[in-house]
């Protein structure tokens, strides 16, 4: 029987392969969730297309002929080619992207702690764009123009079209030092230690806390001995780990670099006379963006 190309019912391939692999129409119907009668009808239609016999009936069921097995092999190849196109579409799928704007703390800390990775990784490609010392207007324009999707910093842009969320607050500060530092045997440093040892300072628009010392109930600003400045938190922690410098950081960051990242550092309490201002952290995004804010407050 001559069948025009556009008239061939490709569902017959699935049914034929199921019968060959199952051994009879009954098991094939269960596998495909159709009736045995529908299977038999499909086999009859397929047999009418070919001049050679597809099956021999035996006591064990339907046994494919040599030509039938060759046809099954060809059909299976067709099915594999089709299945491969599904895999190819997944490999080449270009998911939408979320670009985070902020300092290296955003990349190293907030991506780990505040973003629901399972949800985002499944839906989006995640990018980070470092922004340090940019003006408020520049940051607002980056959000409004789509250069970035979420900005994480201390001073959110003041713009009607930008919504702002408080995502974290740094309240407690500690001193970190390397485990080879003489101070590592202590649990708390003194004011003398604070002023004697050189400090590694993280200097970024993310945060740079001012040290306030209270002595005899009179507060005054004091000068620390600065031995290293960097806008890279990783650079600061590396210096602290390998030298005798110390660094004052929020407890959350100190714990993250010690216990999660595995840095060889000691966390020490600060002198009772030293206090730091509370530092809020905000996430800002364009109101018209279709990206859900997947940040949780700390």
Write structural notes for this entry.
The protein has helices at residues 11-22, 25-32, 36-49, 66-91, 104-113, 117-123, 136-144, 191-196, 233-242, 251-260, and strands at 55-58, 61-64, 97-102, 125-130, 150-153, 162-170, 173-178, 199-202, 212-215, 218-221, 226-230, 246-250, 265-268, 274-275, 279-286. The chain has a 5-stranded mixed β-sheet. Helix 1 packs across helix 2 and helix 1 crosses helix 4. The protein contains 10 helices and 15 strands. The model is unreliable at 216-220 (pLDDT under 50). The chain folds into 3 domains: 10-88, Arc Repressor Mutant, subunit A (Orthogonal Bundle), CATH 1.10.10.10; 97-168 and 281-286, 3-Layer(aba) Sandwich (D-Maltodextrin-Binding Protein, domain 2), CATH 3.40.190.10; 173-277, D-Maltodextrin-Binding Protein, domain 2.
Question: Which structural traits does this protein have?
Answer:
Arc Repressor Mutant, subunit A, D-Maltodextrin-Binding Protein, domain 2, 3 domains, 10 helices, three-stranded antiparallel beta sheet, 298 residues, DNA binding, 15 strands, five-stranded mixed beta sheet, alpha+beta, transcription regulation
Chain-wise SSE layout:
Elements: H1 11-22, H2 25-32, H3 36-49, E1 55-58, E2 61-64, H4 66-91, E3 97-102, H5 104-113, H6 117-123, E4 125-130, H7 136-144, E5 150-153, E6 162-170, E7 173-178, H8 191-196, E8 199-202, E9 212-215, E10 218-221, E11 226-230, H9 233-242, E12 246-250, H10 251-260, E13 265-268, E14 274-275, E15 279-286
Parallel strand pairs: 3-4, 3-5, 8-11
Antiparallel strand pairs: 1-2, 5-15, 6-15, 7-12, 7-13, 9-10, 9-14
Helix pairs in contact: 1-2, 1-3, 1-4, 2-3
């Amino acid at each position: 029987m001559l069948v025009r190309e556009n008239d061939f019912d490709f569902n017959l391939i699935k049914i034929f392969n199921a019968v060959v692999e199952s051994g009879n129409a009954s098991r094939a119907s269960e596998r495909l969730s159709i009736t045995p009668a529908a299977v038999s009808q499909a086999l009859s239609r397929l047999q009418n297309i070919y001049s050679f016999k597809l099956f021999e009936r035996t006591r064990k069921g339907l046994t494919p002929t040599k030509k039938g097995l060759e046809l099954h092999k060809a059909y299976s190849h067709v099915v594999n080619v089709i299945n491969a196109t599904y895999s190819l579409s997944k490999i080449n799928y270009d998911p939408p992207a979320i670009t985070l704007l902020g300092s290296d703390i955003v990349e190293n800390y907030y991506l780990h702690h505040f973003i629901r990775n399972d949800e985002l990784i499944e839906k989006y490609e995640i990018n980070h764009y470092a922004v340090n010392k940019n003006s408020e207007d520049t940051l607002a324009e980056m959000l409004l123009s789509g250069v970035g999707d979420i900005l994480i910093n201390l001073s959110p842009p003041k713009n009607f079209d930008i919504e702002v969320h408080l995502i974290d607050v740094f309240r407690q500060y500690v001193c970190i030092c390397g485990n080879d530092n003489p101070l590592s045997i202590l649990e708390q440093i003194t004011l003398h230690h604070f002023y004697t040892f050189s400090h590694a300072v993280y200097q970024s628009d993310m945060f740079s806390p001012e040290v306030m010392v209270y002595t005899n109930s009179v507060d005054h600003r004091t000068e620390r001995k600065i031995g290293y400045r960097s806008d890279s938190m990783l650079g600061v922690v590396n210096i602290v780990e390998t030298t005798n410098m110390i660094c004052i950081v929020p407890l959350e960051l100190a714990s993250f670099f010690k216990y999660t990242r595995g840095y060889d550092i000691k966390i020490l309490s600060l002198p009772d006379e030293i206090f730091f201002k509370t530092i809020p952290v905000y996430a800002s995004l364009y109101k018209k963006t279709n990206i859900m804010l997947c940040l949780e407050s700390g």
